[in-house]
Amino acid sequence: MKKFIINIVGPRATGKTTVIKELLEYLPQYEVLAIDDFRLKYGSNTPMKEFNAWMELSNRINECRYIILETSGTSQNLREVYQYLKFYYELEVFTVYLEAPLNERIRRQRDRKVRGYIEPIMYFERSIEEESRASVLPVQARIFNVNSAEECAGQIMDRLPDTMV
Questions:
Q1: Residue 8 pLDDT > 80, yes or no?
Q2: Distance (Å, whole) CA 153 – CA 143
Q3: pLDDT given at position 124
Q4: How many structural domains does the chain have?
Q5: Residue in 13, 11, 20 with CA at minimum distance from that of residue 75
Q6: Name one Pfam family in it (predicted).
Q7: pLDDT at 146
Q8: Contact 157, 23 (CB under 8 A)
């Protein structure tokens, strides 16, 4: 079975989740899988717990045909998941790197905490300033999220191959 995967990647607080909610208005057949959901469920404060979160994410991908995957895009575990998937499935993958200005990301991070957002505890230290690293996967589109999530979703839809819509 062929799998269609839209990766929405980028640093923390770039608006990935909000853009994905808008994207689902155009693509209701897609299932959203976010690594942070699995990290919260299985833990990520040790390398083994982080590995288990990625394994469960991989298992869920096996169950779906149309997937929007939300990650930072920088984990080697992501690359390994794709190596595994390519061995068993025909894949069509489109990766979008979402960016936002650092000052906006810091503001969003503060707003999240006020609203009670629970961030997974990682086994390695990372600051919001250090997160702007390149994706481990090839990126087909870079979108600078300074406008509305609706506009970003529209830009993604304009760039998606027809076979993925």
A1: yes
A2: 10
A3: 63
A4: 1
A5: 11
A6: AAA_33
A7: 76
A8: yes
- Model confidence at 5: pLDDT above 90: yes
More confident residue, 46 or 98: 98
Distance CA 138, CA 146 (A): 23
Distances (CA, A) of 77 to 9, 40, 66, 90, 135: 14, 17, 20, 20, 12
Give me the amino acid identity at 16.
K
- pTM of the entire structure? 0.90
For 33, the token pair is 């899988």
Q: What CATH number does residue 82 fall under? A: 3.40.50.300
d(CA 98, CA 12): 10
- pLDDT for the residue numbered 132: 61
Burial annotation 65-78 (CB, 10 A radius, 16+ → b, else e): eebbbbbbbbbebb
Is residue 123 pLDDT above 80, yes or no?
Answer: no
8 A C-beta contact, residue 81 and residue 54: yes
Task: Check if the beta carbon of residue 92 is closer than 8 Å to that of residue 57.
Answer: no
Name every residue whose Cβ is closer than 8 Å to that of residue 13 and which is 6 or more positions away in sequence.
100, 104, 105, 106, 108, 109, 112, 128
Structural domain boundaries, residue 56: 2-164
Rounded percentage of the chain residues whose pLDDT exceeds 70: 93
Q: Are 1 and 132 in contact (CB under 8 A)?
A: no
